[in-house]
Amino acid sequence: MNPDHRASRRRFLASAGGLAAAAAAAPALAQPAAAASRAGGLPFLIGSAADTLLPRGKARRVVICGGGWGGVTAAKYLRQYAPGLEVVLLERNPVFFSCPMSNKWLVDLVDAQFLTHDYLAVSEKHGYRFIQTEILEIERDRKQVITAAGRLHYDYLIVSPGIRYNYEAWFGNDRRMAEAARARFPAAYMPSAEHFHLKRALHDFRGGHLVMTLPPPPQRCPPSPYERACLIAAMFKARKIPGRITILDHKDGVRPIGPGFRAAFDELYRDVITYVPNARIEEVDPFRKHIRTEAGDFDFDHAILMAPHQAGDLAWKAGLVPASGSGRPTGWADVDPLFMHDRADRDVYVIGDAVGFVSPQFAYYPKAGHLANRQARIVARYIAEREAGREPDWALPDNLCYMMVNSQPMEGISVQFDYRVNAEGVLEQRQMDFNERGPATVPEDFNWARLSYEDMFS
Ligand SMILES: Cc1cc2nc3c(=O)[nH]c(=O)nc-3n(C[C@H](O)[C@H](O)[C@H](O)COP(=O)(O)OP(=O)(O)OC[C@H]3O[C@@H](n4cnc5c(N)ncnc54)[C@H](O)[C@@H]3O)c2cc1C
Q1: Are 318 and 160 in contact (CB under 8 A)?
Q2: Ligand 1: does its nearest atom lie under 6 Å from the Cβ of 218?
Q3: Residue to probe by mutation, ligand 1, list 221, 230, 332, 364, most atoms within 8 Å of CB
Q4: C-beta 368 within 6 A of ligand 1
Q5: Which of 101, 219, 227, 455 is 20 to 30 A from 188, alpha carbon to alpha carbon?
Q6: Closest ligand 1 atom number to CA of residue 103
Q7: Tens-digit pLDDT string for the chain (458 aa)
Q8: DSSP of 67-130, one letter per residue?
Q9: Residue to mutate, 99, 103, 448, ligand 1, most ligand atoms under 8 Å from C-beta
């Protein structure tokens, strides 16, 4: 129906008092809300949550929720390992923005182009469907995902939503405080507008006291706040900004690569960085710019307020976050540690930072992009094997993280992890810290990032 016809039909119904008559006569009123809104004149492609986003096709479908490091890798490898499957990647952001390397971008060591990648080109190349939309709900009993643009059925679901900030731990149900903390002093720990806010704040900073609160473990990329502090301190020094940085750490010491970071704080930034261990947060006031901790009280001119981390909202909405023994939510998705699926539902996999407790030896996998990428490949293989009618053998990820601690000259440190299953069937982790600061790590770091982006986007 063209718009003129639609308009004249609406005029007819109104002018002829035809609404009541139409209501009585039309079975359309018994139709779902989406169909009713169509009758009201919405163009076909303006979807609503009640619409069918994608009709079921002949192929079985994998829906991937979240197009970050885990999700975007899973989409590509699923198409390679199981070309008969239809793969749909749902993501709210229009472009991929990488948190790894973003500390370097904050202080102008790399440009935004290095971190930003195009979902449409890679989805076209590998033959999966990328849909930019907000995921609203996951109805596991009906095997469907509800998005702002419509709902769609899945045969397999991969949930890779990253993290959320648990502001409730600081502010309870006080939305005003939580919103003020997020909007004024964002953590910039998720791919979002926060990074741009923080970068502007740092570049406008003319001196004074910058405070960073570090989240308690488990947290996204534990070494990266220390890297951020070092690089900001280096920028202050290079630009002669009279700034002091205080790191309020929940932990009793710097971990991982503790000696490497401590050496950088002491040898390079003694006059800029103050490291405070055991600074468990008691109160944060973003209006008064004041923080009370177990290690003392702190006023600030600007802050990077990192509230505790938990699994991203979608893991909660999908019912993947159980209660602990005390009855409180664990905060993280409970999965089979080897096969990465929900313990009760083999068709629902979780990858990346949202994954919960996996081992009595090391508790949680490091919440790292490298590890999310490896888990994504492994889960893609599991699904492909199952589609081929075979039971998959388990596989384990590895992890690797480079951290730059100095920009003039550029120097870094690094940490590696590998995994095995011991004779009792328990997952074990081996951690290797490389604490000696040096220039050789820097090209390795950039090479790692380049290869990772290539792996996900070419
Ligand atoms: C400053 C910093 C430095 C880091 N450095 C490193 C490093 O050097 N090496 C390393 O390995 N890791 C690093 N990390 C960690 C890395 O970024 C994460 O571990 C990784 O992004 C986890 O991948 P993920 O897929 O679980 O989550 P993400 O990459 O965050 O992806 C989740 C995606 O889900 C989307 N999403 C969530 N909810 C919805 C919804 N309702 N609707 C639609 N879309 C939704 C989000 O928009 C996001 O794109 C760093 C992190 C930070 C913050």
Answers
A1: no
A2: no
A3: 221
A4: yes
A5: 455
A6: 1
A7: 343 444 333 333 333 333 333 333 333 333 444 444 555 678 888 888 989 999 999 999 999 999 999 999 999 999 999 999 999 999 999 999 999 999 999 999 999 999 999 999 999 999 999 999 999 999 999 999 999 999 999 999 999 999 999 999 999 999 999 999 999 999 999 998 999 999 999 999 999 999 999 999 999 999 999 999 999 999 999 999 999 999 999 999 999 999 999 999 999 999 999 999 999 999 999 999 999 999 999 999 999 999 999 999 999 999 999 998 899 999 999 999 999 999 999 999 999 999 999 999 999 999 999 999 999 999 999 999 999 999 999 999 999 999 999 999 999 999 999 999 999 999 999 999 999 999 999 999 999 999 999 999 99
A8: -SHHHHHHHHHHHHH-TTSEEEEEESSSSEE-STTHHHHHTTSS-HHHHEE-HHHHHHHHT-EE
A9: 99
Query: Residue 388 has which token pair?
Result: 């081929």
Amino acid at 46: I
196 residue type, one letter: F
